[in-house]
Specification:
heterodimer; A: 271 residues; mainly alpha; MetI-like fold; 2 domains; 10 helices; 79% helix; flat; B: 261 residues; alpha/beta; Rossmann fold; three-stranded antiparallel sheet; 7 helices; 25% strand; globular; binds adenosine-5'-triphosphate; binds magnesium ion
């Protein structure tokens, strides 16, 4: 593979199809197992405990096809994305200044660690007491709960940057902008994507808690309704909306990883 | 011995590189565990000179190298490159100094040709020009056809050649090399060494070449400085193409003695 003139011929269409089917097969398999287990349970337990997944499926379809209900899903999705974006921007900036200055790091690190110990529910209470607008409250809760992780991940990525490579780039006397573009951004990108993957899961779990308070729409609000109606199929269907979203975004991030990080050398031996 | 000894008469003002009474102490001066890696070193390198710095491992060669490159600050003394302080006038050396490190230090996320273009990007060269220049250097170093390979798909020797191309592509007047060939097999190293001497001479550059191999120093330098720990000059000799084989043998023997002492 080191010689450009002897690259192997591109695989045939049939090979590509086969490997695609294989890929889909392996990624779907775990879900099939969970579905079968649940369906099995539904045969023995009352409907309000383990509703048949067929019911759940129809409920999901209802949500997709009803504009109002799908709007609830989108509202929640936007809240997650807004919160994560906010936390990423603030966390990224904090990470940069903390990696640059030991003093700022000494000051902020304990504070962020403290934040990490505060449960999401406490932030909910604080947000209600401190702020008025529902959307702002939710945004605040989302940012505060994901900020420490983002910041620590950015600092870790910056500190983990190769000193040798950084000095090499420095030896060309880059401007600050160019140093960022040429060295810092590509070096920390893999860690940033991992951080997004981890925080996405956290955010999806926090957002429903945040929505329990005051939101008049969104997945969290709908879940509360299902709880009051004692409707397990509905609760599952709404939960699945978030799961779908997380899977979708994770898939997109993984796609970016596989295309953007082609340069990585991969050992033929598994870890 | 006709080989002229240390050119002490060199005025520091026209020297390409001037180290005046330079010391470097790691850790807090005088404190426990502090280490004096360079001790009151005086060294001037004339424009167009190829200086080989020779010394045993751990004698402070890389430390001197990093001070000339402006990557570390001396604890005391003055370092001047083309009359400027490489550490505090850091940006003034953009495009003026090129460095080949001991290891290749290629950016893994860039292809060979993109790595070679790095220095030209810092100089804001137009994209088409820098691509052309980079390609020419890769071809000169025998890497035609590998422009779009990522470093992990290149062999160690190929990577080191890419890093040499990267240093030469900026056409800087001062070249610093820290044992660039020590990781290569002798025949590849020999070929690259000859190529390197040719490139430096052809382009009239000033070069500082660090090595711990006597043969390499004799092959490359017009002047050899032997360092003893903590970096102090123990022997300083200049020679040229007229220097006879016998004299070279004598110099080699003397260097061997100094190193062993
Ligand atoms: N960052 C540092 N902190 C403390 N001590 C250091 C540091 N860098 C170098 N030293 C010490 O300074 C001395 C000289 O190191 P240097 O890297 O300059 O050696 P060298 O001559 O380049 O050796 P080699 O030929 O093995 O590369 C060593 O003894 C080392 O212990
Ligand atoms: Mg060294």
């Amino acid at each position: 593979m080191t010689d450009t003139t002897h690259r192997s011929a591109s695989p045939s269409v049939a090979d590509v199809m086969l490997s695609a089917i294989k890929n889909v097969g392996t990624s779907v398999f775990p879900f099939v197992v969970v579905i079968l287990l649940w369906q099995f349970a539904s045969l023995f337990f009352p409907r309000f405990l383990f509703p048949s997944l067929i019911d759940v499926f129809w409920r999901c379809l209802d949500i997709f096809s009803s504009g109002a209900m799908f709007g609830d899903v989108m509202a929640t999705v936007l809240r997650i994305l807004a919160g994560l974006t906010g936390a990423f921007i603030v966390g990224g900036l904090l990470g940069l200044v903390m990696a640059r200055s030991k003093m700022i790091d000494n000051f902020l690190s304990p504070m962020l660690t403290l934040f990490q110990g505060i449960p999401a529910l406490s932030w909910v209470v604080f947000a209600i007491i401190w702020f008025h607008g529902v959307e702002f409250r939710i945004f605040f809760i989302m940012v505060m709960t994901t900020l420490p992780a983002f910041t620590f991940q950015v600092i870790g990525a910056l500190r983990g940057m190769s000193k040798d490579l950084t000095e090499m780039v420095f030896s060309f006397r880059p401007t600050r902008m160019k140093l960022f573009r040429v060295m810092i951004a590509p070096a920390i990108l893999p860690d940033i994507l991992t951080a997004w993957k981890v925080n996405l899961g956290n955010a999806a779990r926090v957002v429903v808690v945040a929505e329990l308070v005051g939101a008049t729409g969104g997945v969290g609000y709908q879940l509360l309704q299902q709880q009051q109606l004692f409707d397990m199929a509905g609760a599952l269907a709404w939960t699945l909306q978030l799961v779908f979203f997380v899977l979708l975004v994770q898939g997109a991030l993984t796609l970016i990883e596989t295309t953007a990080f082609r340069y990585r050398a991969v050992s033929e031996r598994a870890l | 011995m006709t080989a002229a000894l240390a050119s002490e008469n060199l005025a520091s003002a026209d020297a390409a590189i001037h180290l005046g009474n330079v010391s470097k102490v790691f850790g807090k001066e005088g404190a426990d565990g502090s280490y004096r890696a360079v001790d009151r070193l005086n060294l001037d390198v004339a424009r167009g000179q190829m200086l080989a710095i020779l010394g045993k491992t751990g004698c402070g060669k890389s430390t001197i190298f990093n001070m000339i490159a402006g990557l570390t600050e001396p604890t005391s003394g003055t370092v001047r490159v083309s009359g400027k302080n490489p550490f505090s006038d850091f940006d003034a050396f953009r495009g003026k100094m090129a460095i080949v490190f001991q290891s290749d230090r290629l950016l893994p996320w860039r292809t060979a040709i993109q790595n070679v273009q790095l220095g030209l990007e810092m100089l804001d060269a137009p994209p088409a020009d820098r691509k052309d220049t980079a390609r020419q250097w890769l071809i000169k170093l025998g890497l035609g056809g590998h422009e779009d390979d990522f470093p992990h798909a290149l062999s160690g020797g190929m990577r080191q050649r890419v890093s040499i191309a990267r240093a030469f592509a900026t056409n800087a007047d001062i070249l610093l090399c820290d044992e660039p060939f020590s990781a290569l097999d002798e025949s590849t190293a020999g070929k690259l060494r000859a190529e390197f001497v040719r490139l430096v001479k052809e382009n009239g550059k000033t070069a500082v070449f660090i090595t711990h191999s006597i043969s390499e120093a004799l092959e490359i330098g017009d002047r050899i400085v032997v360092l003893k720990r903590p970096a102090m000059i123990a022997y300083d000799v200049s020679f040229n193409t007229d220097t006879s084989a016998e004299e070279r043998t004598l110099i080699r023997g003397r260097i061997g003695e100094v190193l062993a002492a």
